[in-house]
């Protein structure tokens, strides 16, 4: 056996041993966490039929013979969607909420990121203050922000907008300044040697490198914010989530299903559209 083969076998044994040890550690942590949180697979399995029972109750009762009859005919599509005139504007409000909060947050996060990055020569005190602030913003879940803003401003779109914007600023600022820190410093040094100012170095050295990444993260966050805005509506922060919660509380099972269907359709369309737009913009700018 050659020295290389002995070395290879020793490394393989070490890798297998490390894999086994870390697997045991993860399994132990999982069991301990489940024990402390009173999580039980037995209870989950036993309760699973109730979940499917509820889903079955939300399915509308449609009759093929009356499928396309008027809204007054029970069993027709029009009867199932008799609240669409109210739900569609709420879907549009949810989209506006996600779009507005994302646009504002992207603009603020992009500025903060350049001051928070290590390689932009920002004073250490300012850099630490920005990083600590955005860490606090993203640590607080959107739902917690929404509850506080609902108590302060009342039910409506403003609490949802503020909750999404603050959390998005915290999340995107971190992603953005990490992208800036991973950028090559060769263009920066070249511009600095030519006497370029700090703003010019950011504009012509950093920005062309991080622009595709910024755009990609921004589009991804727009998708996330739409999903989050539907959840925020459950606590009165505007959007289609309020309609969903109302239907659940009033046991309007057929309206629960059509509300969920609208959300799924819009999320799918938004994912498809934003994905295509992201690829087109990023590939066109690279």
Automatic annotation (TrEMBL):
<feature type="transmembrane region" description="Helical">
    <location>
        <begin position="94"/>
        <end position="117"/>
    </location>
</feature>
<dbReference type="GO" id="GO:0005886">
    <property type="term" value="C:plasma membrane"/>
</dbReference>
<keyword id="KW-1003">Cell membrane</keyword>
<keyword id="KW-0472">Membrane</keyword>
<comment type="similarity">
    <text>Belongs to the binding-protein-dependent transport system permease family.</text>
</comment>
<feature type="domain" description="ABC transmembrane type-1">
    <location>
        <begin position="91"/>
        <end position="274"/>
    </location>
</feature>
<dbReference type="InterPro" id="IPR000515">
    <property type="entry name" value="MetI-like"/>
</dbReference>
<dbReference type="Pfam" id="PF00528">
    <property type="entry name" value="BPD_transp_1"/>
</dbReference>
<feature type="transmembrane region" description="Helical">
    <location>
        <begin position="143"/>
        <end position="166"/>
    </location>
</feature>
<keyword id="KW-0812">Transmembrane</keyword>
<protein>
    <submittedName>
        <fullName>Phosphonate ABC transporter, permease protein PhnE</fullName>
    </submittedName>
</protein>
<keyword id="KW-0813">Transport</keyword>
<dbReference type="InterPro" id="IPR005769">
    <property type="entry name" value="PhnE/PtxC"/>
</dbReference>
<dbReference type="GO" id="GO:0015416">
    <property type="term" value="F:ABC-type phosphonate transporter activity"/>
</dbReference>
<keyword id="KW-1133">Transmembrane helix</keyword>
<feature type="transmembrane region" description="Helical">
    <location>
        <begin position="253"/>
        <end position="270"/>
    </location>
</feature>
<dbReference type="InterPro" id="IPR035906">
    <property type="entry name" value="MetI-like_sf"/>
</dbReference>
<keyword id="KW-0997">Cell inner membrane</keyword>
<feature type="transmembrane region" description="Helical">
    <location>
        <begin position="20"/>
        <end position="41"/>
    </location>
</feature>
């Amino acid at each position: 056996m050659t020295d290389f083969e002995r070395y290879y076998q020793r490394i393989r044994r070490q890798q297998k041993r490390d894999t086994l040890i870390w697997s045991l550690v993860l399994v132990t942590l999982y069991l301990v966490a489940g024990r402390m949180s009173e999580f039980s697979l037995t209870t989950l399995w036993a309760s699973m039929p109730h979940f499917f029972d509820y889903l079955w109750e939300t399915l509308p009762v449609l009759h093929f013979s009356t499928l396309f009859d008027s809204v007054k005919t029970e069993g027709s599509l029009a009867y199932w969607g008799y609240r669409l005139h109210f739900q569609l504007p709420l879907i549009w409000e949810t989209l506006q909420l996600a779009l507005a909060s994302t646009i504002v947050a992207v603009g603020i996060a992009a500025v903060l990121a350049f001051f928070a990055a290590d390689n932009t020569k920002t004073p250490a005190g300012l850099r630490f203050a920005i990083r600590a602030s955005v860490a606090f913003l993203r640590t607080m879940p959107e739902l917690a922000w929404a509850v506080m803003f609902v108590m302060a401003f009342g039910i409506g779109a403003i609490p949802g907008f503020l909750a999404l914007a603050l959390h998005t600023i915290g999340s995107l600022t971190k992603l953005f300044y990490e992208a800036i820190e991973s950028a090559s410093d060769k263009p920066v040094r070249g511009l600095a040697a030519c006497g370029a100012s700090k703003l010019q170095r950011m504009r012509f050295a950093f920005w062309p490198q991080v622009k595709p990444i910024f755009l990609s993260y921004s589009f991804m966050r727009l998708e996330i914010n739409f999903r989050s805005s539907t959840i925020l509506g459950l606590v009165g922060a505007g959007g289609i989530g309020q309609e969903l919660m109302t239907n659940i509380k009033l046991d309007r099972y057929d309206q629960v299903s059509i509300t969920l269907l609208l959300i799924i359709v819009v999320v799918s369309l938004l994912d498809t559209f934003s994905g295509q737009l992201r690829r087109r913009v990023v590939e066109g700018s690279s």
